[in-house]
Amino acid sequence: MKVLINGETKEFQDNINLLELLKVEDVAQPDMVSVQLNDTFVTKDDYSSIVLKEGDTINFLYFMGGGA
Amino acid sequence: MREFSDEELERYSRHIILEDIGIEGQEKIAQAKVLIIGAGGLGSPVALYLAAAGIGEIGIVDGDVVDLSNLQRQVIHSTKDIGVAKVQSAKEKMEAINPNIHITVYQKFLDASNILDIVKQYDFVIDGTDNFAAKFLINDACVLANIPYSHGGILRFGGQTMSIRPHESACYACVFDAPPPTNAVPTCSSAGILGAVAGMLGTIQATEALKYITGAGEPLFNKLLSFDAKSMQFRTINFKKNPKCRVCGEQGITQIKDYEAVTCEAKL
Fold it and tell me: What is the pLDDT of residues B181-225, one digit of tens each?
């Protein structure tokens, strides 16, 4: 199954959910990322119940709190 | 309308010859009021460029004093300013660049008790703060007061920015909802920041303010621009306003409140 992650096409096993994807993609701190699936932001509580489909587009947007 | 002196016409001539700015655009710049929150890594380049550009009224907020460890990136401050209030140090440099502008300093940190009254006096706000409590507070205040603003965040070699027109484009909380748990957050003192990266992001924020004020181009509304300076790759992610947003959605906030502070230590 092909999925577009952060602009890159990657191959994953079928029926992978968002929580598993975060692990496979080495997102070390899931609390520090906002996940966008096909233009919609996903609530953290829903990560494990959302199963990816062929052609899904996913973006990880990282919190950046610095500025001074 | 404002009559520019010969000195001003020459000073701003490289703006005025730009087709998208012209004399009309420079007049808009001269009449604009911009608030810069934080006179640090992001606030420094923003303040220098907006002063040079001739923004008529600039407010600058910071409760801190200049520290030796700031000087690696906070380019508006000099070695002789160590121990001086950042807003005073910044005002002095901005006036030296451009005596035609008016600068108001707020030597304090913003919180729920004072932010709305200050933000309301401006046309555009720059978030140059270094912690999530302040970033979400600024977002709430700008949404409540309906003032457009530029969000900016930096970490190590990276930066991100988006511009927000409240109730029309996505706000910071549409994308990031709420501050991350306190134990998950690397602060700038513990994580570090390449000084020049602060300059890269700050100059983008200054550019966004000038674009909004003059109407030139398209600000980063409904877009998050992020970059990684190590690979020098820039990415823009598009999104829309979230109708269920905690802050600007249908059931959004009606009052300002403080967020739990996870501060980047004042003394870095």
Answer: 876 666 555 689 999 999 999 999 999 999 999 999 999 999 999
Question: Across the interface, which of A39, A61, A66 has its CB nearest the CB of B264?
Answer: A66
CB atoms within 10 A of CB B96: 9
What's the CATH superfamily of B32-238?
A: NAD(P)-binding Rossmann-like Domain (3.40.50.720)
Tokens matching residue A43: 């609530």
* Per-residue model confidence as pLDDT tens digits over B25-38: 999 999 999 999 99
Annotated catalytic residue B248: no
Question: Which of A3-23 are b and which e, b meaning 16 or more Cβ less than 10 Å from the residue's Cβ?
Answer: bebeeeeeebeeeeebbbbbe
Distance from CA of B157 to the nearest CA of A (A): 11
CATH class for the region spanning A2-62: alpha beta
CA distance B110 to B37: 8
Q: Do A41 and B239 touch (CB under 8 A)?
A: yes
| Residue whose entry in the numeric block shows the structure tokens 């810069």 | B36
Cβ contact B181–A67 (<8 Å): no
The residues spanned by each domain of chain A are 2-62
**Which residue of the set B171, B174, B188, B264 is catalytic?**
B188
Over the stretch B74-107, which tens digit does the pLDDT of each residue have?
999 999 999 999 999 999 999 999 999 999 999 9
pLDDT over 90 (residue B237)? yes
| A7 interfacial to chain B (CB closer than 8 Å) | yes
